[in-house]
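pasting for ref
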Amino acid sequence: MTVSVIIPCYNEEDSITDLLIAIYEQSFPRDKIEVIISDGMSTDATREKITDFRIEFPDLKLKVVDNQKRTIPSGLNQAIRAANGEYIVRLDAHSNPHPDYIARSIRALESGLGDNVGGVISIQAASEGWISQSIAIAAGHPLGVGDARYRIGSEPREVETVAFGAFHTELIDQIGLYDETLLANEDYEFNVRIRKAGGKIWLDPAIQANYIARSTFRELSHQYWRYGYWKLRMLLRYPETFRWRQISGLFVLSWLVLGFFSIWFPAARWLLAVETVVYGSTLILAGISSGIDKKSFLFGVGVPLAIATMHFSWGSGFLWSLIVYFFDKIFRKEQD
């Protein structure tokens, strides 16, 4: 059997070498692996790093394809089109799979446990700084990511989605490629189509990888705003996939509505105050717990800030997407 490891990539000079070394050190037979990096025309030293790796480790099949559209789903599709393997293992340029990642993924697929299988992703800090570490803690905290099994862990079980994932190449013939109209949430949408076709998504916590979180609040905000924006677009297609953890949009909306009406109505002011106290207290408790665990009061500040950044960025992106969607519908209606 042969495996094609596909990696969408753009300006990843800091992480691409570590990822390639992790793939090189996999327990799965190296001569059965090909690596396809779909590069979004990187402007940093990413391609030079890949070239250096090729020279140092020539026994790993590695090729680079151009992703002219510079989006993740288009990059994945370009890599799949160039793949020759019987199986596809999708990884991220910020990820670092454990040595048995590929072997365990293929074993689960061959055992018929699922049509797309994945494992638990452990979030790692991008640096030793307290902000970077706070973001990593928040990105793996239930308050930040809800009940996402691939983030908080689980027993082996059927799930709605997995991070990255591995699947038989023939699956593409059945359900199609990744949806290039979604610039985020493409993995979830891909898994929705698998489930609608009668397939199973399987999570095995023994399949493990590390993921390097964003290093600044600005980067984190941009990431989660994008997640929220495109999640709304996916939910409009598949409303049955809405989950409680996605109420951030309503949460942000409630602050805006209560803030507006509190100008005139005391009841709105009281509700806004209660919501603020409850939310703030919850964040503070999460921060205190993290600060005690890490033995630094800085995490007592950083973790609440990171979680709040995730919530408000996701919620704002979600609401903005909704506004754009309705205005677009009104504009098209007027044109008709």
